[in-house]
Amino acid sequence: MKRLRFVLITGMIVTSVSFSCNHKNNSHDSDETGKMISQQNDGSILLKLEEATCYSDQVNPSSNTAEWKFSVPKPGRFKVWLCSATRDTNNLSYMTPVKINLLDSNLERRPECDKIVKNSTEVTFPYFRTDSYMGSVYISEPGEYNIQVISEKVTTKEIRNQTQLLADNTRFMSLILVPMKR
Q: Which of 23, 39, 62, 123 could serve as a FRET partner for 160 with CA atoms 20 to 30 Å apart?
């Protein structure tokens, strides 16, 4: 009986530690990393947290990960912007630097409020949308790519609803890749 209880408790812990933002299994198989995201008409690539495959670790949230698969028909250099919903635009309260991995580019920075997006429909009062410039990446060829964000602010909607994480003032919403013009 004790062994069965141990197995059940262990199973529940493993299940609660691993969640997927888009409700898919947490497989590393590229066919299950979510839908393919394409460039918008202006050339930007919008990567929303709800469309990501997420890996959450409630014991060590600094290793929470969101991954997207996207296609690029026209290569070039892209500015990387991290979008957050926050109550305090002076302190976004990211406890650890956010890591962004794409190809050989590894960006790492603690987000700061570089831009406040006024009249954003993505957030409601008392929250504001803030964008943080994270750096730039170069994509040399058209094709399909995977990008990864590692941060304690990567959470699933279910976890946010259960634990009221919005009370900590800031949440990660999306990543935007904006083509740089010469």
A: 39
Q: Are the C-beta atoms of residues 58 and 112 closer than 8 Å to each other?
A: no
Six token digits for residue 18: 């691993």
- d(Cα 49, Cα 27) in Å, to the nearest integer? 17
Say if residues 149 and 93 touch (Cβ distance below 8 Å). Answer: no
**Proportion of the chain in helix, strand, coil states, percent, rounded to 5:** 20, 40, 40
Longest CA–CA separation in the chain, Å: 69
Degrees (nearest 5) of the Cα angle 5, 25, 178? 140
Instruction: Give the residue among 142, 147, 135 at the shortest CA–CA distance from 180.
Output: 135
Question: d(Cα 21, Cα 128) in Å, to the nearest integer?
Answer: 22
Q: What is the pLDDT of residues 86-121, one digit of tens each?
A: 999 999 999 999 999 999 999 999 999 999 998 899
Tokens of 20: 């997927």
Label residue 59 by pLDDT band (50, 70, 90): confident
Q: How far is CA 31 from the centre of its chain?
A: 19
CA angle 177, 62, 84 (to 5 degrees): 40
Architecture of domain 2-179: Sandwich (2.60)
CA distance 76 to 138: 6
Domain ranges in the chain are 2-179
